[in-house]
């Protein structure tokens, strides 16, 4: 299975796999906790949450994949991936500072000097257990994955996020625009506003952004608004009208239309499915 497909909006799923990463054709999102472990080669570089995120070999990264993300560079030769549906992650009852950090869209990354020698074997076993179709193996894998994430939460309290400065001018401009979107998507924003953040002309901004992120500025803003709406539906009891406003949608009708088209269900059914 190729984990780096070109889909913009992927379904949530519980699965694990490993292999050599390929660069992603476009930014995408899915409503899971994503866990990456770089087992060999060099580092992976993500555009995530308006920033460049560097995951070094031996590093373990955990983030909420509803935030648009895209693998833009990689020297890794072997990576392990896990996707855990976000409602299951929330049900684990992890320490609130850790959960709050993940919910706010900030990745948690362990440095290589904190690598666990057993991680390669563990990730391989978890992927096999999740694919086995055996309820007991599935239960064991989930307990062990939860324990590994708990250890990560304990080890990374207060750690800064590993960021990469970016050396390519087009990449730096795209990051500036993505960062502006991440900070302002709740507000009415235009292409001109986004372009100004990178100090370029709007037409040039659209070209450069699509060149790097492989999607339009408007679609990228929409992904952010959908991620925020999902977060609010999962973590609050705000009515749909307030969720729509807080996530940056101009109207409740537009919120319902965009959400249903992207998620295949209404906001109310999405919330009900998360137990709220």
UniProtKB/TrEMBL annotation:
Superkingdom, taxonomy of origin:
Bacteria
Q: Show where the HTH araC/xylS-type domain sits.
A: 175-273
Keywords for the protein's UniProt record, in alphabetical order: DNA-binding, Transcription, Transcription regulation
Q: Is-annotated flag, keyword Ribonucleoprotein? A: no
Pfam families (UniProt xref): HTH_18
Record field: transmembrane: none
InterPro entries referenced in this protein's UniProt entry, alphabetically? AraC_XylS_family_regulators (IPR050204), Homeodomain-like_sf (IPR009057), HTH_AraC (IPR018060), RmlC_Cupin_sf (IPR011051)
Q: Cross-referenced PROSITE patterns, in alphabetical order?
A: HTH_ARAC_FAMILY_2
* UniProt protein name: Helix-turn-helix domain-containing protein
User: What organism does this protein naturally occur in?
Assistant: Streptomyces roseolus
